[in-house]
Specification:
- The structure holds 2 protein chains of 2 kinds.
- By secondary structure, chain A is of the alpha/beta class.
- Chain A has a domain at 6-96 and 170-249: Rossmann fold.
- Chain A is 35% helix and 26% strand.
- Chain A contains 10 helices and 10 strands.
- Chain A has helices at residues 46-52, 83-89, 104-113, 120-133, 137-140, 153-165, 183-196, 209-215, 233-238, 243-249; strands at residues 6-17, 20-31, 35-39, 63-71, 74-75, 90-93, 171-175, 201-205, 218-223, 226-232.
- Chain A is globular and about 55 Å long.
- Chain B contains 11 helices and no strands.
- Chain B is 76% helix and 0% strand.
- Chain B is globular, with a radius of gyration of 23 Å.
- Chain B has 2 domains: 3-43; 46-282, MetI-like (MetI-like fold, Orthogonal Bundle).
- The chains are: A alpha/beta, B mainly alpha.
- The A-B interface holds A 54, 56, 59, 61, 83-85, 87-88, 91-92, 94, 96, 98-101, 110-111, 114-115, 149, 160, 163-164, 167 and B 96-97, 164, 166-167, 169-177, 180, 184-185, 188-189, 282-285.
């Protein structure tokens, strides 16, 4: 397989919470239309790193980064970058499903509405498309104007994915998207990720190594704020180079 | 007696004690209400609500007082509501955690505890004299706004704080700005709580007499106020005035006026409870 284009790339990234160095000199590239998984024990920095990719950490007092993160070869931490524009390109799905306390329809079209789009037909069309993409349409088409909070956890999470897709990003960041879900919902989301990668670049943080093995093309192992190893998923799981990686994936710690 | 017996006994003992404590509060309130109703209910009629104040007790009414109270209520709401909510939003959503912010926060909490008469003195100096508003409705409403502002700010912040972080993050992640997130997510989700706080603050303002007396609200106002610059009186001042007179008939008037004042406060509190209940049912995280 020929090498794909690097959609996202971190170069010498350091991240601090106040004086605490949370990420140490991270350099890694995420290829277009591929699934890249971040694994590692709790507190290793994988979520922090994921959240630097759409600058979600900007709101944390005392957080700062050094180094570069390139999206389509442009540094997203440049001064003139507007975070709202950035986040239209880099969508995010969170660990715990977080639908807004509004109707299902309002959830899906929120991203478009805040951009000022008012065309009802366009909004409805987008809602249907993204809900179909996330295989939720058949389940919710009769209750689009009912509260999203009445959905099951798995449905809520697929709604949150639909919501992220509605503003047509090119990258989708997923922070342990299935850790709060049952196995059946998890399987659905994993299938969905497989489908989505045709059109999106996906970066996923997971605690579940089987999951990383099933769905990702590349895997990065983080430990104590360092990127210990980055390789093709198969390679990383079958012949890890670093003993820390080996210990982690064989379940000796974590 | 075994250990678990002893624990059960303690449990029971506290329950009895708790019921007793609850009952004391309620009993005092009940006795007060019954007493007031016996004294004043017979005095409430159309004339009492529509008559101007008079030196003769049987001809005196509370028309100017309750119109004044409604005016004060309206003006205070219009002034304190936007100021307090905006300040609450700023402190909770925008202000960076710094020494300055902490000092600001502590001071606002302290302000809620300052005796109301102090606000009256402040109002006298600033609004009545410096801004030359005199003993007008506007001066009174501004003074009461200062008084309830800390309450509105604190309850707004509490209500906003109850909105989970995940909702804000969800909104930011979709490209929303801070203001869009506040406007479309945080405010609707916390509106019930904010409104409850505002209404409770209003019902506090309705009952205040001291700061208004200080700024020169009069006990005897022969005309109902027609504009914010008019002189005025309010129910608590009217009550205070009547109670301080020796004649028994004025005491009856006072009791009747108290019933009207209580009614206004109960209605306000009732609305607050209803709103809280309604919004809580709508939103479950």
């Amino acid at each position: 397989m020929k090498n794909k284009k690097n959609k996202l790339e971190a170069i010498g990234l350091n991240a601090y919470y106040g004086d605490f160095l949370a990420l140490k000199n991270i350099s890694v590239a995420m290829e277009e239309n591929q699934v890249t998984a971040f694994i590692g024990p709790s507190g290793c920095g994988k979520s922090t790193f994921l959240r630097t990719l759409n600058r979600m950490n900007d709101y944390i007092d005392g957080f700062r980064v050094e180094g570069e993160i390139l999206l389509d070869e442009q540094d997203i931490y440049r001064k003139e970058v507007r975070v709202d524009e950035l986040r239209k390109q880099v969508g995010m799905v969170f660990q715990k499903p977080n639908p807004f306390p509004k109707t299902i329809y309002e959830n899906v079209v929120y991203g478009l509405k805040i951009q000022g789009i008012k065309d009802k037909e366009l909004l409805m069309e987008t809602a249907e498309n993204t809900l179909r993409q996330t295989t939720l349409w058949e389940e919710v088409k009769d209750k689009l104007h009912k509260s999203a909070l009445a959905l099951s956890g798995g449905q809520q999470q697929r709604l949150c994915i639909a919501r992220a897709l509605a503003i047509s990003p090119s990258v989708l960041l997923m922070d342990e998207p299935t850790s709060a879900l049952d196995p059946i919902s998890t399987a659905k989301i994993e299938e969905l990720i497989y489908e989505l990668k045709k059109n999106y670049t996906i970066v996923i943080v997971t605690h579940n190594m089987q999951q990383a093995g099933r769905i990702s093309d590349h895997t990065a192992f983080f430990y104590m704020g360092e990127l210990v190893e980055f390789a093709k998923t198969k390679t990383l799981f079958t012949s890890p180079k670093d003993t820390r990686t080996q210990n982690y994936i064989t379940g000796r710690f974590g | 007696m075994t250990n678990s017996d002893r624990n059960r006994l303690k449990d029971k003992a506290f329950q009895v004690f708790g019921v007793f404590c609850t009952f004391i509060g309620l009993a005092v309130l009940a006795i007060f209400l019954i007493d007031i109703l016996i004294d004043g209910l017979g005095r409430i009629n159309w004339e009492f609500l529509n008559n101007l104040p008079s030196r003769r007790a049987h001809r005196a009414g509370i028309y100017t007082a309750w119109i004044g109270t409604l005016w004060i209520l309206l003006l205070t709401t219009v002034i304190a509501f936007p100021l307090g909510i905006s300040a609450g939003i700023y402190l909770e959503e925008y202000a960076k955690k710094s020494r300055m912010a902490t000092i600001l926060e502590i001071n606002i909490a302290n302000l809620a505890g300052v005796p109301s008469i102090i606000y009256g003195l402040l109002g006298l100096e600033i609004f009545v004299r410096l801004m030359a508003l005199g003993g007008s409705l506007l001066a009174g409403a501004l003074t009461l706004s200062l008084l309830i502002l800390p309450i509105v700010i604190v309850t707004t912040r509490e209500a906003i704080k109850a909105v989970p972080r995940s909702i804000r993050e969800g909104s930011f992640a979709l490209g929303a700005s801070k203001w869009q997130t506040v406007w479309h997510q945080v405010l609707p989700a916390s509106f019930g709580g904010i409104l409850t706080g505002v209404i409770l603050a209003m019902s506090r303002a309705v009952g205040e007499a001291a700061p208004l007396i200080v700024i020169g609200a009069l006990a005897y106002v022969p005309f109902a106020p027609a504009s914010p610059m008019d002189e005025f009186t309010v129910l608590p001042i009217q009550i205070f005035n009547w109670i301080s007179r020796p004649q028994a008939a004025f005491a009856t008037n006072a009791a009747a006026a108290i019933i009207v004042l209580l009614l206004i406060t109960f209605i306000l509190n009732g609305i607050a409870v209803y709103l809280r209940h309604k919004w809580q049912k709508r939103i479950k995280w």
